[in-house]
Design brief:
The structure holds two protein chains of two kinds. Chain A is of the alpha/beta class. Chain A has 21 helices and 19 strands. In chain A, helix 9 packs parallel to helix 10 and helix 13 runs parallel beside helix 14. The relative contact order of chain A is 0.10. Classes of the chains: A alpha/beta, B alpha+beta. Chains A and B meet through helix 1 and helix 9 of A and helix 1 of B.
Chain lengths: ~625, ~230
Amino acid sequence: MRQLIENRFLPRVQKPARYLGTEWNSVHKDWDTVPLKMAFAFPDVYEIGMSHLGMQIIYGLVNERPDALLERVFAPGEDLERLLREQEVPLFSLESYRPLKEFDFIGFTLQYEMSFTNILNMLDLAQIPLRAGERDDRYPLILGGGPCASNPEPLAPFFDLFLLGDAEEALPELLELAGKRKEEQGRLDKQAFLMEAARIEGVYVPAFYDVEYTPEGRIAAVTPNRPGIPHRVRRRVVADLDQAYFPTKPIVPFMETVHDRAMLEVLRGCTRGCRFCQAGILYRPVRERDVETLARQAEELLRKTGYDEVSLTSLSTADYTCLEPLIKKLMDKYQEEGVSVSLPSLRADAFSVNLAKELQRGRKSGLTFAPEAGTQRLRDVINKGVQEKDLLEAVTGAFEAGWTGIKLYFILGLPTETDEDLAGIAQLAHQVLAIGRRISKEQKRKKKVRVTVSVSTYVPKAHTPFQWEPQIPLEEIRRRQQYLQSMLSKGITYQYHDAELSFLEAVFAKGDRRLAIVLERAWQKGCKFDSWREHFNFAKWLEAFQETGIDPGFYANETLGLETVLPWDHLDMGVSKRFLRRERERAIGGSLTPDCREGRCTGCDVCQGFGVDLVLKGGKD
Amino acid sequence: MLVRLEYSVGKEVRYLSHLDFLRLFIRALRRARLPVAYSQGFNPHAKVAFGPPLPVGITGSSEYLDVEFNEELPVTEIMDRLGQVLPRGVVIKRGKKIAGKTPSLMAVIERARFEVRIPLEDGQRGINWEKAIGSFMARTEVVVTRHTKDGPRPKEIRQGIYRLEGKEEEGTAVFNMELQVGNRGSVRPDEVIRGLIELEGIPLLPEAMEIRRTGLFLLQEGKPVTPLEIL
């Protein structure tokens, strides 16, 4: 197999460096002496998958165990896929070039809904039957984890189990169990293993639940169909990130990837409480790492990788209570060596701009801010605590410091949005442009000021205060996109997402098990890499819905009653429905809910439920 | 201190681009904690300079790289420390300190030697290599199609072929050739093979070709010498 791939396939593909598997820090264990074999599958191309911190965490976590090995696989490019299909060669892992079907587990990371067709395509390329029911003990167990595992229902028939929450907790327990059973029995009896695995907290075995429907087609009940299976599966939470595993020897790719730098995870979670944000719910509570832990991890990371840039990653790094001491420490130690420190995102305030100023080396090309909505009214509805004053101050600071490009990120179609809110986006953008031009003129700069308005379409997500809300209809998305464009002057660059793609995302984000056949049909029709504009084929998707008799609007565009059983209600993210309902009410009333970091518990019930607490290293104010 | 290193590129890394190798060495030098010199200015870059890029898919026995360091260090120590942090397939073979000023590798290297191996099937045995190659080398012009980013273009390569030998070795055709490389233009070994197939009618399967660049040379009084020999 290796010969064939190396000598016949790789010379004929455009980016062979994706498929080498021998990158620095890649782990090659002896196949015959390691009892447990797991493949980590990222359902998108190498360059995207390798930029994902979660993959690096799990890669290190499993490979540090003497009893297990973990190898990687990504969605192959079209050219390699054609060769594999032509020659009937099964999809293989990068490290040992072994067929995926020889592994005990294949773990897919579920990062975004529009990667689902790639999962089916990868299973098919691996010559593994798509449906769990069609896979006997000779086939690997198919696992899923990541944010979309919080509502994995459209994928339910294809997977054996899902891991909810932080994988550092449940995955080792699962491997432990598998190791024991394999040692006793020489192999894994799938059904018996799944019965035991389902008792591990955070493990969801979809086949062990029956779904009943109401006459209107909504969910009547989701109930366990075996004894001893929990009614609700609760996500796992790492209580103390300082004790948690962190990979300080991540794989260093040969080719350039999307995030080609060392990643230091400073904290997990965000309690700002933006009401549209799913990540803000799924990763609660905020758990910060200690500066000392981070400094030690940064040292190891830089020494073991050779990177010259460290990115301080998290959902909102500017909120890290020890950010300034951490940055000072890193700069003092590594600036001489030419190492730069970067932040993945900025808060729209002066503090963040000052930080960016400090960190930026060389060219100041562009900064991005996310006011999310165009008016204070709507920003209050979504609980985005950004004031116009803060944003304009931040932008002024950025232009004065020498930046010439500002990108403003907005969401179109948020609940209660009107044309007035869209007009607010245009107004804000023009204000920013005017500030930029004034400062540019004052400072006699040659470089033209660029303001970009980037607009995505709102997709209501499970487990958020807006989970009952519909997405605005497709036609209305298009109308609002046009309307906004008509109000923006030529000096502003306007980018917006494909409305049809956002519509499908909304269907699957709030979907149930009945969507599995649509997914399968769309894949059969050739849908894959749907999030790539050049591959996305909406007409085929519509055919798939039509042929299966399923109305996508039923999922995307209907308002759900607060008492409706939701397809994901049996999956417990720790945030109570009571809290979500209250937040929804407050949203409609336009009242803000402060961040619980400021001292007052907002009653989301995560900490009490998990027996954990906020971890703030700078202390609570 | 400027040091010239000779390294080999094995099968494992033959699909890396020139840019990938640049990134690979800079990161390895950092992992080795060697005091590499950086340029001044807004976007400082490490002072490393390569010879002519190794085409993607080809292995190399003797590739070269110049690195400038901020401190004096024994060359053996540099080779040792770097050798420990290189991915499999990249091996440091030799090194020498460059005393005084030396023109860059790119500026001086003019010749490259290649070994091309192509497995033969039964019907392809017993070819009269001497005759075929003699006839090929007797031509004053060999035009092949080169695929450039502006589309296919005709390209004369005969002037850039300095030596060509071929023989059969245990069912494999083995060619050794010395070709023009560098700033004034390069001839690629696969172009020579394609020319042989097309013009001399030798039945070879170019898809199965394995190519190794066996050496890089500059010319001193018309004779090829390696970039280390001149130091």
